[in-house]
């Protein structure tokens, strides 16, 4: 456990203590806990942890939440989590975290179910759906929190990283777990509940395949970003910031769900084509020759080819290809004008220029945010889409930028992006050699 960052250690410790507090009332004398049901559900939970992809763990957790009081429901998942499969060290810490996570989710679902099912006129099914959604949200939030803490990322990234498909598992598993709970309490007992739980393993596998696909997509993006990092450290840091700024703009434009994530990926990967640009040009300290500039200006097309065939990056690919286009048609590679430029590219163009102006370079200091925004507004209509500029301004007014440019840019090897168009003004040309 001590190999983990301090924030992650604190999160694990806090989750374990919170789970212990939730389960403690069940251990009091005279609590009236149906220990036979706890033991039976815990045994099913242990078996579920041994199934491929733990495809029954969530349904068993919900069934326990509907059958047992909150404190007892918090105990059901603990044995299975403590003996479950763990593929990476630290094994003991991961098992402890998994037990606390499942315990808190089970307690929350049981508590919410008890509260909502007691409302006059409210039948069990709506309460089950709400409880299932709460359970899914708790599991996803804790998963995201430990990942953010372990990777030492800002905690505000937790919310943008939360899965958007939480409603599906709740709608599928909530009613089925309620049926299993009804059978469990019925005349035929726990054996009939297994007839419901076992088919749920199949539905769990189907839902899990979607999660695996999203995980594979994230791994593909990480691999591409890592390739950029190996080529040029500045470009990676720049792209990550452009991804954040693109996300801010997209939210202000009312984008949600998958579209929002697409805009973030477009920003993160917009300069992926620089993998194909000679390193000596990326790191050149001084003006570029016309020939060198032509080579640099091929990076959008290189990037477009690199991500060709990756289906989930379709819209992001358009931004990669066209983020250097300008509304007046003086950009590259195709000289598109106005709304012929894809919306994703217009979002990334503004985010890209903003970060270029507010970042330290080997030959220039970062501009204040207000100065960069003023320059973007001045160039709106000729180079940038005014809607995107206005959206970024509103987002920064409300949320702030909060990113501090590195005090020493020498380690960036002057690998500049120089994305603010030199034709906009001498001040806006971030770099002495024009765009890079």
What does the average pLDDT come to?
Answer: 80
Percent in helix: 55-70%
Estimate what percentage of residues fall within beta strands: under 5%
Structural category is mainly alpha
Q: Tell me about the biggest sheet?
A: none
Given the C-alpha coordinates, what overall shape results?
elongated
Q: How many strands in all?
A: 0
Number of domains: 2
- The poorly predicted ranges are 404-422, 425-436
Q: Figure out the total of helices.
A: 18
Strand-and-helix sequence, N→C?
Answer: HHHHHHHHHHHHHHHHHH
Ends distance: 45 Å
- Return Rg in Å: 26 Å
Oligomer: single chain
Structure description:
64% of the residues lie in helices and 0% in strands. With 436 residues, the protein is mainly alpha-helical. It folds into two domains: 6-209, no CATH class; 232-412, Hypothetical protein af1432 (Orthogonal Bundle). The two termini are 45 Å apart. The model is unreliable at 404-422 and 425-436 (pLDDT under 50).
Précis, in short:
This protein has 18 helices and no strands. With 436 residues, the chain is an all-alpha fold. The longest helix is centred in the middle third of the chain and has 42 residues, at 190-231.
Core attributes:
436 residues, mainly alpha, Hypothetical protein af1432, 2 domains, 18 helices, elongated, disordered C terminus
Q: Could you outline the blueprint of secondary structure elements for this entry?
A:
Blueprint: H1 6-23, H2 35-50, H3 57-67, H4 70-83, H5 91-117, H6 124-150, H7 157-161, H8 167-185, H9 190-231, H10 233-252, H11 257-269, H12 279-282, H13 290-296, H14 299-306, H15 314-322, H16 343-358, H17 369-379, H18 386-399
């Amino acid at each position: 456990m001590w190999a983990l960052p301090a924030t992650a250690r604190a999160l694990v410790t806090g989750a374990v203590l919170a789970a212990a507090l939730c389960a403690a009332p069940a251990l009091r004398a005279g609590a009236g806990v149906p220990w036979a049901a706890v033991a039976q559900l815990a045994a099913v939970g242990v078996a579920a942890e041994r199934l491929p992809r733990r495809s029954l763990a969530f349904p068993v957790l919900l069934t326990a939440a509907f059958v047992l009081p909150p404190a007892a429901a918090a105990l059901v998942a603990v044995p299975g989590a403590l003996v479950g499969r763990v593929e990476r060290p630290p094994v003991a810490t991961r098992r402890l975290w998994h037990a606390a996570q499942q315990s808190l989710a089970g307690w929350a679902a049981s508590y919410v179910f008890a509260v909502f099912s007691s409302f006059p006129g409210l039948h069990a099914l709506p309460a089950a759906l709400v409880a299932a959604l709460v359970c899914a949200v708790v599991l996803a939030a804790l998963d995201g929190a430990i990942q953010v803490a372990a990777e030492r990322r800002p905690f505000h990234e937790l919310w943008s990283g939360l899965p958007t498909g939480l409603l599906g598992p709740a709608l599928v598993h909530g009613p089925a777990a309620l049926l299993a709970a009804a059978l469990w309490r019925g005349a035929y007992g726990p054996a009939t509940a297994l007839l419901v739980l076992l088919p749920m393993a199949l539905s769990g596998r189907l839902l899990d395949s979607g999660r695996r696909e999203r995980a594979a997509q994230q791994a593909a993006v990480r691999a591409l970003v890592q390739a950029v990092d190996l080529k040029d450290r500045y470009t990676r840091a720049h792209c990550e910031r452009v991804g954040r700024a693109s996300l801010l703009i997209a939210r202000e434009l009312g984008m949600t769900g998958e579209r929002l994530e697409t805009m973030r990926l477009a920003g993160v990967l917009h300069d992926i084509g620089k993998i194909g640009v000679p390193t000596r040009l990326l790191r050149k300290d001084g003006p570029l020759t016309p020939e060198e500039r032509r080579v640099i200006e091929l990076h959008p097309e290189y990037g477009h080819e690199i991500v060709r065939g990756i289906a989930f990056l379709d819209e992001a690919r358009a931004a990669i290809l066209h983020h250097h286009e300008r509304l007046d048609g003086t950009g590259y590679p195709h000289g598109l004008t106005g709304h012929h430029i894809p919306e994703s590219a217009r979002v990334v163009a503004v985010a890209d220029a903003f970060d270029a102006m507010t970042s330290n370079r080997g030959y220039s200091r970062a501009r204040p945010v207000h100065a960069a925004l003023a320059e973007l507004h001045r160039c709106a209509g000729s180079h940038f889409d005014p809607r995107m500029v206005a959206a970024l301004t509103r987002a920064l007014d409300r949320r702030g930028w909060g990113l501090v440019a590195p005090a020493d840019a020498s380690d960036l090897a002057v690998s500049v992006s120089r994305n603010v168009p030199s034709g906009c003004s001498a001040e806006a040309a971030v770099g002495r050699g024009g765009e890079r």
